[in-house]
Amino acid sequence: MQSRKKRAAVQPCCGRLHPICCIVPPHMLREVLQNGNPEQRAWAFQTLTTSEQFRGRRLTVGNISFAVSAGEKRRTIFDAKNGSDLPGTLARSEGDPPSDDPAINEAYDGSGATYDLYEELFERNSIDDRGLRLDSTVHFDVKYDNAFWNGDQMVYGDGDGEIFERFTKAIDVIGHELTHGVTQYEANLIYYGESGALNESFSDVFGSLVKQRVLNQTAEEADWIIGEGLFTANVKGVGIRSMKAPGTAYDDPVLGKDPQPATYKDRYKGLEDNGGVHINSGIANRAFYLAAVEIGGYAWEKAGKIWYIALRDRLRSRANFKRAANTLVKVAGELYGEGSQEQNAVRTGWKEVGVI
Fold first, then answer.
1. What are the DSSP calls for 130-184, one per residue?
2. CB 11 within 8 A of CB 63
3. Residue 19: what pLDDT?
4. Is the pTM of this model over 0.70?
5. Closest by alpha carbon to 245, among 344, 173, 352, 332?
6. ∠ CA(342), CA(343), CA(344), 5° rounding?
7. What residue ranges define each of the domains in the chain, with the CATH number in brackets?
């Protein structure tokens, strides 16, 4: 393997076009604006507006790092108390006993599980590989339907209670959003078009691996659903996305139908969603799922390592699907041998989705 590349100056996690990275895609919120009842439409509008305000704030302030690298595992959970000032009131620090508030404990445990996956499997010391503090804020705003990484910390809304539950409930969401931070410090994939879809897909991959590892599930046993448990019982759906079967996660009168394509020929080519970053990520997600299942065993052991090495050492900010696919096939060969089962599985996955 090549030696690790020297890091360039860190840019906001999703590049200049999208300074914060949210788990709920804008197209889903726009469906609520069109199909929801008056109160649901108000919640969706508030969520979209708040997200846009944060984007503007990040563009104005720039990429200032407010969290200090502790050099070790250091989780700090804050409570916004349904306000919008960050980070909020200190609620739990590393080593403190559990809180009576489940959201505080879920943010603490989820960030810890994400740290452990990167440290124990990939010898990575936190998001920046230098022990960056894992700061999180819970109870952000009133009925806020999203969670995001803003370049410095995690932020979680409580959900509106009719469509979404609290966003700390899904550990893969926590892993997903923190992985945007890893991408920010490594490949720094520009958050637009295919590079942006890869950015989203890497977050889904490692978010799913966090969940699978906590549940001790093999690739065959995992559900490969992103955000399982976020929907209330009112919603006809199992989660925000399905890595196994893109386009099948939900079909609901208010949220609409999951628009993700499973193959490259069916990719979204419009301008919405930053050129389809949340939509077309399903193509790369399915390629990972197919590779992981064909390799077998625990997905984080081999498939996860291939994807991590590519993200850390090989991919650059403007990578597209084909470049990523070829890079991942090459990395698999370097790690496990040319013509190995692992390399063939990665190649087959990307062939199945029509990229190579």
1. S-B-EEEEES-TTT---EEE-SS-EEE----SSSB--TTS-HHHHHHHHHHHHHH
2. yes
3. 46
4. yes
5. 352
6. 90
7. 21-185 (3.10.170.10), 193-352 (1.10.390.10)
| First CA to last CA distance, the chain | 23
Q: What is the pLDDT of residues 152-161, one digit of tens each?
A: 899 999 999 9
Q: What is the rounded CA–CA span in Å between residue 12 and residue 59?
A: 9
> Exposure of 352 by Cβ count < 10 A (0-12 exposed, 13-18 middle, 19+ buried)?
middle
Q: What's the DSSP call for residue 265?
A: G
Average pLDDT score over residue span 106-114: 98
Q: Which residues are catalytic?
A: 177, 278
- CA dist 327 → 7, 193, 237, 249, 267 (Å): 19, 18, 34, 29, 21
Rounded to an integer, what distance in angstroms lies between the CA atom of residue 311 and that of residue 222?
A: 23
Residues 3 and 179: their CA atoms lie apart, in Å, by 22
18-47 pLDDT, tens per residue? 446 788 888 899 999 999 999 899 888 888
Q: Which two structure tokens, joined as six digits, stand for 18? A: 């999208």
As a whole number, mean pLDDT of residues 309-332 equals 98
Q: Which of 8-22, 76-90, 168-182, 306-320 has the lowest mean pLDDT?
A: 8-22
